[in-house]
């Protein structure tokens, strides 16, 4: 009779705190974060890497946690939406999304914000086309994308509406 797989113990930095958790070999990072660690800001949308609702940052890169095995988090630095606000104050990207009206039902918002953070961490002043390209991995059915692009522009320290007016758009 075959032996059933044993849990794997992994250790990683999660939002600045070292975590140790046991996962099964088939557990996704999404399942480990939501079910084992209670981080429900990481949303399950499609489960196939198409919608971006489950986006987290792993070692500085935006990744779809539904496509990553939990065991792959071992030794990594992981950021989720829960780690952004500090001392009860919204992160500047979160504030930019609120100010731009880029939040409707809110389901996709955590993934959008984490993608925006990964972009701005690497490229603090991205151009509009770069924002559009980078955010294309995140789907939203409620807002339309103009407010989302505007929010990322605001978080980068630019006023998208003002720049559009100056460009004659």
TrEMBL record:
Span of domain 2Fe-2S ferredoxin-type: 8-84
Example GO molecular function: oxidoreductase activity
CDD domains: fer2
SUPFAM superfamilies reported in the protein's UniProt record: 2Fe-2S ferredoxin-like, CO dehydrogenase ISP C-domain like
Source organism of the structure: Desulfomonile tiedjei
Gene3D superfamilies: 3.10.20.30, [2Fe-2S]-binding domain
Pfam family, one: Fer2
Keyword terms, alphabetized: 2Fe-2S, Iron, Iron-sulfur, Metal-binding, Oxidoreductase
Phylogenetic lineage: Bacteria, Pseudomonadati, Thermodesulfobacteriota, Desulfomonilia, Desulfomonilales
Alphabetized InterPro entries for the sequence: 2Fe-2S-bd (IPR002888), 2Fe-2S-bd_dom_sf (IPR036884), 2Fe-2S_ferredoxin-like_sf (IPR036010), 2Fe-2S_ferredoxin-type (IPR001041), 2Fe2S_fd_BS (IPR006058), Beta-grasp_dom_sf (IPR012675), Diverse_Oxidoreductases (IPR051452)
Record protein name field: (2Fe-2S)-binding protein
Keyword Repeat among UniProt keywords: no
């Amino acid at each position: 009779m075959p032996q059933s797989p044993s849990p794997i113990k992994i250790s990683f930095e999660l939002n600045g705190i070292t975590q140790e958790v046991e996962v099964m070999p088939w557990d996704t990072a999404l399942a480990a974060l939501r079910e084992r660690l209670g981080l429900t800001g990481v949303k399950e949308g499609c489960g196939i890497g198409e919608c971006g609702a489950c986006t987290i940052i792993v070692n500085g890169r935006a990744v779809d946690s539904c496509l990553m095995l939990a065991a792959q988090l071992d030794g990594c630095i992981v950021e989720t939406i829960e780690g952004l606000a500090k001392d009860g104050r919204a992160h500047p990207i979160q504030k930019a999304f609120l100010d731009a009206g880029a939040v409707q039902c809110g389901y996709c918002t955590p993934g959008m914000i984490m993608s925006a953070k990964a972009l701005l961490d690497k490229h603090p002043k991205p151009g509009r086309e770069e924002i559009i390209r980078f955010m294309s991995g995140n789907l939203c059915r409620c807002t339309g994308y103009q407010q989302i692009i505007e929010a990322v522009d605001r978080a980068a320290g630019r006023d998208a509406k003002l720049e559009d007016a100056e460009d004659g758009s």
